[in-house]
Write a structure and sequence with these properties.
- The chain is of the alpha/beta class.
- It is 50% helix and 14% strand.
- The protein has ten helices and nine strands.
- The strands form two sheets. A six-stranded mixed sheet has the order 1-2-3-4-6-9. The protein has a three-stranded mixed sheet with strand order 5-7-8.
- The chain starts with a helix and ends with a strand.
Length: 283
């Protein structure tokens, strides 16, 4: 399961970015980006969460068999108030960034829509940790975490790879992911990184997967791309399906920033890529 270091990094990023934002704007003689009432409400909510969850923390620390799959049950128990407090902090940040991904949670289902942006890894780590904690409270060690993907714009490559890294940390500790693309959904660009990284990949016949290379924020078609980005992309392709990887390599889709799209039905019926798609879903 996902470990405490993931949450610690997220907490540090949240605190540092907020502190920098306040400091920079204060130096310029203008108020922080969050209105005063919102800041006060956030502080009150965080404080309330710490007190409210103290009893839950104690309960979970005395019920360690439920948490035996975590690397350190005691640390994780102590992290619950921080997790909830960070959720408030991150939600406030995300509300100011209209281009950011939206993640809705329902049981072990995470519904991702919008665009993968700078703050998306922080939000994803919170939602994933909350989902895993919920599964542990139920004593459920078998269910997959289901990622429902509808990201037609993709997003930042760096942030997309960070999301994959969070998945890999969780997978290394026993979590399994299934990716799902519905009939009216499109998974493009950085979104396909998440699709490829999943242990199972499900898509509706009309669902769309769109792959391409890397482009810059200013629209440059052939920017200088870090070599590790290209290698990471190829690693994802190869881990998902060897033949699909060979197809990309031979076609130079990544290097020449070509765009290639598939519907679920088309890709599933390609025998040469057998195994890439776990199965088709009705919706």
């Amino acid at each position: 399961m996902i470990i405490i270091e993931c949450l610690t990094r997220t907490i540090n990023n949240c605190i540092c970015r907020y502190a920098s934002s306040v400091a920079m704007q204060s130096m310029a003689g203008c108020p922080p980006s969050f209105e005063g009432c919102v800041q006060v409400r956030a502080k009150r909510t965080i404080s309330a969460n710490f007190h409210q969850l103290h009893s839950e923390q104690k309960r979970m620390e005395t019920n360690r068999p439920l948490l035996k799959t975590f690397a350190d049950a005691t640390k994780l128990g102590r992290s619950i108030p921080l997790l909830r407090a960070l959720a408030v902090c991150s939600a406030l940040f995300m509300s100011t960034r209209s281009e950011a991904v939206t993640i809705l949670v329902e049981d072990n289902n995470l519904f991702l829509s919008g665009s993968i942006a700078e703050w998306s890894p922080e939000l994803f780590s919170i939602k994933l940790a909350e989902t895993l904690l919920g599964l542990q409270r139920e004593g459920d060690t078998e269910s997959f975490v289901r990622l429902h993907l509808d990201l037609p714009e993709g997003g930042l490559a760096s942030a997309s790879f960070e999301l994959v890294n969070l998945m890999r940390v969780a997978q290394a500790h026993g979590t399994k992911f299934s990716a799902h693309v519905a009939s009216d959904a499109t998974c493009m660009s950085g979104c396909v990184f998440l699709f490829l990284a999943a242990d199972e990949r499900w898509i509706a016949p009309e669902g769309k997967l769109i792959f391409h290379g890397f482009s810059s924020r200013n629209g440059e078609t052939h920017p200088t791309v870090p070599a590790e980005y290209i290698q990471s992309y190829y690693d994802l392709l190869k881990s998902a399906n060897e033949q699909f990887y060979e197809f990309f390599k031979a076609s130079r889709i990544i290097e020449e920033n070509k765009k290639v799209g598939f519907t679920g039905k088309t890709l599933f019926e390609q025998e040469v890529f057998s195994g890439l798609i776990t199965g088709l879903v009705e919706k």
